[in-house]
Write a structure and sequence with these properties.
The protein is built from 9 helices and no strands. The chain has helices spanning 2-5, 12-19, 23-29, 33-56, 62-73, 81-93, 97-124, 132-151, 159-173. The longest helix has 28 residues, at 97-124. The chain is mostly helical. Residues 11-30 bind DNA. Pfam families: TetR_C_6, TetR_N. One of its GO terms (molecular function) is DNA-binding transcription factor activity.
Length: 187
């Protein structure tokens, strides 16, 4: 329902009807719609961060882990439901504190994972980067902006081009040539 109607326009009654449960049952578990939306966003963001942490802690080289994270974090397609949810949440988060809080926690955790992969690559001698935190913040901002353009189909950017931009930027941030990253664009 949230993906269909948007965070701001979805009502508890809509969710109850779509899930074939009573509104009373939903309110038994969640006092308000804000509580329900907060828990839905928290659960979604925690699952995404857990997936990224598993990649970050995986057995691959630092370059492979960074590339894997880049591929996972960009939209799979223009109608990627996860990205549509986050785009909507960013808009709502400008006005609603409970959504903004979840978004800031999610962004912070995502940047931490990215920073940790870069810092680990530095320790291993695979990367040269004197500011892993700054590199992670710059990559985050660039990826968010390009993913928005891609999702909105602005400028006819393909997913392959988006991934190429991400790889070029990541290579520059960690002191590598672009050729250190794969050429293929498979997710």
């Amino acid at each position: 329902m949230v993906l269909e109607r948007g965070l701001a326009s979805t009502r508890v009654a809509d969710i109850a009807k779509a899930t074939n449960v009573s509104g009373g049952l939903i309110h038994y578990h969640f006092a308000t719609k804000d509580d329900l939306i907060t828990e839905m966003l928290r659960s979604t963001s925690e699952a995404e961060i857990q997936r990224l942490r598993e990649i970050a802690d995986g057995p691959e080289s630092a370059v492979e882990r960074l590339d894997h994270i880049l591929r996972v974090c960009i939209p799979a397609s223009r109608d990627d439901q996860g990205w549509i949810l986050w785009l909507d949440a960013w808009a709502v988060g400008m006005r609603e504190e409970h959504v903004r809080t979840i978004l800031l926690q999610f962004e912070g955790a995502w940047i931490d994972v990215l920073r940790d992969v870069i810092a680990h690559g530095v320790v291993l001698g695979e990367f040269v980067c004197d500011d892993p935190q700054g590199a992670a913040e710059r990559l985050d901002g660039m990826l968010d902006g390009l993913a928005i353009r891609y999702t909105l189909d602005a400028g006819n950017m393909s997913r392959a081009r988006l991934l190429e931009h991400a790889r070029v930027a990541a290579a520059r941030e960690v002191g590598l040539e672009r050729s250190a990253f794969p050429i293929e664009t498979a997710p």
